[in-house]
Amino acid sequence: MKNIGLYIHIPFCLRKCLYCDFNSYAGKNAYEDLYVEALIKELQCYLSNQEYIFRTVFIGGGTPTIINPENIAKIIGAIERNIQKDAEITIECNPGTIDKKKVEVYKSIGINRISIGLQAWQDDLLKTIGRIHKREDFIKSFNLYRSFGFDNINVDLMFSLPGQTMDMWIETLENVCDFGVEHVSCYSLIVEEGTPMHRLIESGELKPFDDDEDREMYRTAKQILEKHGLMQYEISNFSKHGFSCKHNLIYWRNEEYLGVGAGSHSKLDNWRFWNYQSLDKYIEFLKDGKLPVEDKENISLEEDLWETIILGLRLNTGIYLSEINHKYNIDFLKKYEKTITKLEHDLLIKKEGDRISLTDKGRDLSNRVFVEFM
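The structure corresponding to this sequence follows.
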């Protein structure tokens, strides 16, 4: 019996955001029932071969809250006996895509954590990045969840957005904190090639953000969130005591998880594998009784060690040397002696007893740290 995390991908959106490069589709709602039927078949395939217990379930997208809530209930119903009694069950939500009926269903099937993608407080800024909601939609959605007793709500925010000023960012943070949220995820905008936003920046219609301003916004977020009792526990994540995201901690601790749905990734038994992104291919494979796995790769011990280091260092607690030494049968301090000396000299990491973690400067320059260990 394996105790793991489960990610469920719902790839439908009302409209793609200008910066989005996730595997999501607008205008393909006609696929919904077929897709959910295929997704349940995929889950059944895995559960017939191995007894899994899911200690976390994360329903992401896309926008899971735009589909029929009864379909979400069907998915959860198909794995109900495999969900740990005290499991964290999260659903991602875009403001303005829920109503009382949906929230009632989510509550009744055991969903106990909500992740709302607000991104920014200012309507003009939301329009610039292609979001379809307004601030008022967020307020209504948040209050509706609270009225049904949801007491574990995350809000996703983005900084370094085109046209965003420091005053706008502070206004966003302060207003979100005033709602008493339990968790905030803050991400710097990464402009991926092939997205509409990348083309707008390349053409000069939008101005790219300055690196120094980006870091200043990051530090400002940390100050404001911690002032409101949301303590940093990972480079981009802040929570009140006891409200860290258990599902994402599985990723950061480099533990095992199963991903189902089009384009989803999994890590099980020293293998990493991923599904076809195409909805048609995904559905056809499962209709024929085959798993829709596009490819897989074996994870070597050395690669797994490196991933454990870089993912673990994202956490404020860092990595525990005794755990790594035991798991990989190494002497960490000896193996990485030169790297540790260099990074300590540059004030990017600190060693405290059995633990190595990033400094504040190290969190600003985390990629440099990760490269050094590689």
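The mean pLDDT is 93.
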